[in-house]
Amino acid sequence: MDTPQIIAPSHAPSSGVVHSSTRHTSRFTVVGNHLTQHSELSLTAIGLAAHIQSLPAGARIGIKHLADRFPESETRIAAALRELEAHGYLKRTRERLPSGRVVTRTVSYNQPVAGAARAGEPKSRPGPKPRSQPRRQPVPQPRTRPQQNQQQRQQPQPQPQPRPVRPAPEAPAPGTPAPEAPAPAPLPRPEADKPAPVPAPAPTPVPPRPSLPRPQVHDLDRHRTALDLLADLRRHEPRLLLGEADICRLAPAVAAWFERDAHPDAVRRTLVADLPGSLTRPAGLIAHRLTTLLPPPLPTAAPAEEAAPRHDPLQNCDGCDRAFRAPEPGHCRECRTGLEEAA
Question: Please, what is the end-to-end C-alpha distance for the chain in angstroms?
Answer without folding.
Answer: 181
